[in-house]
Amino acid sequence: MANYFIKHVKLSSPFLLAPMAGITDVAFRSIARELGAGLTYTEMVSAKALVFGSEKTKQLLETASNEVPCAVQIFGHEPEIMAKACQLPELQKFDIIDINMGCPAPKIVQNGEGSALMKQIDLAEKIIKACVQATNKPITVKFRAGWSEETCSAVEFAKMCERAGASAITVHGRTREQFYSGKSNPEIIKACVQAVHIPVFANGDVFTAQDAYLLQEKTGAYGVMIARGAIGNPEIFSEVTHNVCPYTKLQLIEKHYSFLLHRLPERVVVPAMRVHLASYLKGYDGSSKLRAALMQETSWQNIHDALVAFFKDK
């Protein structure tokens, strides 16, 4: 496989695990890295909360020993706060700082953050410039096709990111108004690729290795960021890098749980794992009944026993 870089940071593959709130915990990222992800990101972290010393927010910054390189994704709408966050001691272990300018969640958008910044390109530029000036780490930006179908501003936004000093960008081919419905538009990503000289990573509707290859081929993107296609399916990184996953699905679940249980009490881990568990079991015959039962369970031992019994004949 060829060498891939974001500025001076070398990636082990061009297939990245997207930052996803409530999904990309440190255990899941560690598994994805082991299976071939070229870069992993923390869950989206509030720059303001970091600057004001939120201990709960700092917990999101834990990294695994095999996350090399690793990236943190921050969000906010105040250039000064974003710059201060980039200089915090807690962020110095990260190789790359990514700025979220694509999150469509109402509570983020209503605060003028995430994809709302696509409607305020001047402010977005100030934020990127402030972060670039605050650190020598590569600053990258993740954004969408635009706010709406009528305002697909991705190309203009991509040019602005490059002008402001971003080292790479990731473009999700949906607009904010689409959220995750409809189809991601590879043509918009392709236009961004052709408009800038920095690496562009394509994002949207990648659920199989073939999806990843086709998206990269259609867009000419430097690499591909995989989001929902990796939930419950970190094996996708083995597939896209042409490796065999050394774990069964049950072993992946056990690995994920045990990693978290070494760090957090069971009463915290079990609820946190529910969304993962539902995804890990998706697609198996008879899994819907098991998923429903496990969503009510509070004991890991009981969950494990049920999983062993379920996978015995699979």
CATH topology of the largest domain, which one?
Answer: TIM Barrel
In quaternary terms, these chains amount to single chain
CATH uppermost class of the largest domain:
Alpha Beta
Q: Note poorly predicted spans.
A: none
How are helices and strands ordered from N to C? EEEHEEHHEHEHHEHEHEHEHHHHH
| Number of beta-strand segments | 11
Estimated radius of gyration: 19 Å
The percent range for helix content is: 40-55%
Q: Count of helices?
A: 14
Instruction: Say which CATH homologous superfamily of the largest domain is assigned.
Output: Aldolase class I
Short summary:
With 314 residues, the protein is of the alpha/beta class. The chain has 14 helices and eleven strands.
How would the blueprint of this fold be written?
Layout: E1 4-6, E2 9-11, E3 15-17, H1 26-35, E4 40-41, E5 45-46, H2 47-51, H3 55-58, E6 70-75, H4 79-86, E7 96-101, H5 106-109, H6 121-134, E8 139-146, H7 154-164, E9 168-175, H8 186-195, E10 200-203, H9 209-219, E11 223-226, H10 236-240, H11 249-261, H12 266-280, H13 287-294, H14 300-311
Parallel strand pairs: 3-11, 4-6, 5-6, 6-7, 7-8, 8-9, 9-10, 10-11
Antiparallel strand pairs: 1-2
Structure description:
There is one protein chain. The chain is of the alpha/beta class and 314 residues long. It folds into two domains: 4-240, Alpha-Beta Barrel (TIM Barrel); 249-311. Helices cover 41% and strands 16% of the residues. It is built from 14 helices and eleven strands. The chain has helices at 26-35, 47-51, 55-58, 79-86, 106-109, 121-134, 154-164, 186-195, 209-219, 236-240, 249-261, 266-280, 287-294, 300-311, and strands at 4-6, 9-11, 15-17, 40-41, 45-46, 70-75, 96-101, 139-146, 168-175, 200-203, 223-226. The strands form two sheets. Strands 3, 4, 5, 6, 7, 8, 9, 10 and 11 form a nine-stranded parallel sheet that branches. Strands 1-2 form a two-stranded antiparallel sheet. Helix 9 (209-219) links the parallel strand 10 (200-203) and strand 11 (223-226). The model has no long low-confidence stretch (mean pLDDT 95).
